[in-house]
Design brief:
124 residues, two-stranded antiparallel ribbon, 6 helices, 3% strand, Bromo_WD_repeat, BRWD/PHIP_N, Bromodomain and WD repeat-containing protein 1
């Protein structure tokens, strides 16, 4: 019985992580140079309601799906570049491990601008 509850908690935690990541990706794309890619992604996330974006729970504990725009409006403190900031924090925290792989997550070296922004990080 305890094992089932641990598994259920892990599944819920994994769902929350994936749905949060989906929101962060769509949010990042919506404000950067790849805005046109954001719209089809947002449509797909909303079409698969309840599986792709974070859920809302009512006072009775019932789950309700939410649209991207609703989530963005409810969480104005989450900047469009939040995903980039999270990655930069992880990279700087784990810089020693990453330095052996070229200094970036992808294992390739490049010079970062002094103040990195989504527009300046995209290279051809």
């Amino acid at each position: 019985m305890l094992m089932l509850s641990v598994e259920a908690a892990h599944t819920r935690s994994l769902y929350a992580s994936v749905s949060d990541l989906n929101f962060l990706i769509a949010h990042y794309l919506s404000q950067g140079p790849l805005r046109e890619a954001a719209e089809p992604l947002r449509r797909q996330l909303e079409e698969r309601a309840g599986a792709m974006l974070p859920l809302r729970y009512d006072w009775q504990g019932k789950q309700h799906s939410r649209a991207y725009d609703e989530l963005a409006q409810e969480h104005p403190h989450i900047a469009p570049d939040e995903l980039l900031r999270i990655m930069q924090a992880l990279i700087s925290r784990d810089s020693l491990a990453l330095s052996t792989a070229g200094g970036t997550v992808l294992g390739r070296s490049h010079r970062r601008p002094r103040h990195a922004t989504p527009d300046t990080l995209i290279t051809s």
